[in-house]
Hints:
The protein is mostly helical. 66% of the residues lie in helices and 0% in strands. The chain is built from 11 helices and no strands. α2 crosses α3.
Amino acid sequence: MADSAPRRRSRASAGLPPITADKIIDAAVELTGERGLDGWSIRQIATRLDVWPGVIAHHVGDREAVVMGVTDRVISRIPVPGDDVPWRDWFRSVMSEGRTVLREYPGVARRLCVVGPNVPSALPTIDAGIRVLMKAGFGEQAPEVYRFLFNSAFALVAVEDDRGSFPTARADMGRAMAAFAEDDSRPGLAAAGTVARGRGTDPRDIAAQETEFFHFTLERSLDGAEAMLTSR
């Protein structure tokens, strides 16, 4: 439906179901998947639902309230293991699954890193994750380790989202680095160029490289946290 004013007839007289807060968030989640968290307006939600913008304010609130609802809904879709899972496996699972979910809704990962997971659906995950770390022996440092691990992973997801605005940047960078593969005067660049030369530059190759680097970063973050346990 185009962004235009809704019909003036009431929904009841038009035979349409009533608008609820859940339906408004449903529409906002759909728009986030299509355009990103910063890519829609209250008017566009209203147009999709065929209501006036004031209806959104009445049932949910302003745009920030809708964004909170979207964030809450998206986080609720991230599977969370039980606290009987070893701590590395627990974080590996939540952050890998979290990346899969968050990549479907561009902008939500950035909000989590900048504003924090201040929505109801995040609370059980925070509680479980910190308990897992406490059980592993991190003690009073468990909350900070939890924050470090999640920020490390989801900041990288936020960067992946932002790269959507620069669709050829990764391929261009790869080709530029590959040109240094035989530069004996700069062995560091030559090493990077050799790696770049062995990688593809079509979108599927780039996506695979992004996934590989995410898991590399995740494992090194877990290694860093584990080193804290050793030092203790």
